[in-house]
Amino acid sequence: MKSAVKVTITGAAGNIGYALVFRIASGAMFGPDQPVILKLLEIPQSMSSVKGVGMELEDCAFPLLHDVVMTDNPAIGFRDTDYAILIGAKPRGKGMERKDLITENAKIFSVQGKAINDHASRDVKVLVVGNPANTNALIAASNAPDLDKRQFTAMTRLDHNRAIGQLANKTNSLVADIKRVTVWGNHSSTQFPHIDNCEIAGKPVYDLVSQDWAIDHFIPRVQRRGAEIIEARGLSSAASAADAIVDHMHDWALGTPDGDWVSMAIPSDGSYGIEEGLVYSYPVTCKDGSYEIVQGLELDEFSVSRLKATQQELLEERAIIADLLGG
Amino acid sequence: MKSAVKVTITGAAGNIGYALVFRIASGAMFGPDQPVILKLLEIPQSMSSVKGVGMELEDCAFPLLHDVVMTDNPAIGFRDTDYAILIGAKPRGKGMERKDLITENAKIFSVQGKAINDHASRDVKVLVVGNPANTNALIAASNAPDLDKRQFTAMTRLDHNRAIGQLANKTNSLVADIKRVTVWGNHSSTQFPHIDNCEIAGKPVYDLVSQDWAIDHFIPRVQRRGAEIIEARGLSSAASAADAIVDHMHDWALGTPDGDWVSMAIPSDGSYGIEEGLVYSYPVTCKDGSYEIVQGLELDEFSVSRLKATQQELLEERAIIADLLGG
């Protein structure tokens, strides 16, 4: 049997964490022959609740789950970890300015970046989910000078999956037949869900939908889907966010299928004219635990303007927390 | 590709339902090559919430999920369904007598039994989770005269998995090494978690734990685990219950491993001296979509008394709702 991989989850007692940890323990993230050790890192006031989660994990008798560690100490939570999923973040309080939200979270993620730098496996793969996810990932990476910045990513896979879901619904297609959707930029309402390269069952997407539909209905709906879910459920997306986390880590670790790609927010290398270093969502393929940006996609004027608009938001976020960017 | 199986879930907007439906859609219940259609049956006042669940399912872009139906009409919800998972039930209200709880739920499950009888696939497999689960399954089966009573089961798999979890923890063993645990009787505090036949990594369990530990610590802890979870989480078990549902249906549909068995509450055929017809949890093996009670286990005097005690509770429950048992 393979040796167990260690997976650290912050905010494990929250709604996304609760929807996630059982799926990881069941083998959904790393496959049916890969044992896992879960390390649930919480804030002190959530330790009782996270212990309940640990008890329920025990009650599932998952054959692949070799151990569960519950702690409020980042040094213990990140020690030797292979995968770090950073969900826990400060939510926007009443009357809180967006700038304050970014600054408050920047403090949390600079501490976690340092702890990962000092304690995690040298090959750790980090996924930031807590918002503002791209900028939080930038801060964490900046505070981990001994690691490669490419080990730090942020999640736009939920947006990517939402885009596929909307296309499947609109065209009455099977999800499995929809390829080459991209979400560019920031995980926020400036994101750019982009389907010019999309194929559905081998046909160009614009054989099935119009560009007007894409611009007037599809893009805004994907951008605002989170609010639509809150309105229907009275609660924010949890299980679908957890599922996107499973997908992001699964594909990063085990690879993307031939002929398709996924969206991941990663440190930009300057591709497509985006400022180097910004954590920006690109179309990527994954193989052998590594990712590469899909190159050579043609972008029309409208698309270029959208890529720049979401970059602009990320530049503004970075300016707010510039003093927390180590090195 | 296989044609999709239809799976009806009642109470899909509740906490267990929310933890369950995404796992079914991901392929955890019926395997990675079996498409599914989910039919979410809710009460009218939960339709907005269940629509939010349907939206999140769409947002996951599950390749195996071919359709989602949301309805408050049992005729639509159960039409042609292959698997019915009955979670929705009336919870015990303040000052409510146990007898009233049983009677109130009996009404719900007699209606659902009739609807399944009239609309479901002739091969439907039914799992009752809503409490009192065994007696609710008895009522549903009694109201479905055109179906085989053996198609109606109730869930003791969560108790079974909890028992394995406790043994793994106590003996510091891997879950995969623990075989032949049984939970007998009612899914209630009279259940009998029984390990006399258990082996851990090929050794008799009593090489590793004492009978005193089993009687004084193990049995009561498994029986009362639900309350222990509520105390830690402030909420009742949801994800672990959902996981047990996945396991129950998975094993019933796809079979149990050689050399091991699982616990399922099923209509008694009189085995082990239990009154025929009661829905009683037995050790069973599954193959080709059917189950058989494990025969020939030796039971000592203590065990026989425990089997009778939990039977007695089921007889009392049945007496309360005798007038609702059709045919």
Task: Write structural notes for this entry.
The structure is a homodimer of 327-residue chains. With 327 residues, chain A is α/β, with parallel strands linked by helices. The first copy, chain A, has two domains: 5-154, 3-Layer(aba) Sandwich (Rossmann fold); 157-318, Alpha-Beta Complex (L-2-Hydroxyisocaproate Dehydrogenase, Chain A, domain 2), CATH 3.90.110.10. Helices cover 41% and strands 19% of the residues of chain A. Chain A contains ten helices and 14 strands. Chain A has helices at 15-26, 47-59, 74-78, 98-119, 133-142, 157-171, 211-223, 225-233, 239-254, 301-320, and strands spanning 5-10, 36-41, 65-71, 83-86, 125-128, 152-154, 178-179, 182-184, 192-194, 199-200, 203-204, 262-267, 279-287, 290-293. A six-stranded parallel β-sheet of chain A has the order 3-2-1-4-5-6. A three-stranded antiparallel β-sheet of chain A has the order 7-10-11, with helices on one face. In chain A, strands 12-13-14 form a three-stranded antiparallel β-sheet. In chain A, strand 2, helix 2 and strand 3 (65-71) form a beta-alpha-beta unit. In chain A, helix 1 crosses helix 9. Chain A is globular. The N and C termini of chain A lie far apart (41 Å). At the A-B interface, helix 1, helix 2, helix 6, helix 8 and helix 9 of A face helix 1, helix 2, helix 6, helix 8 and helix 9 of B.
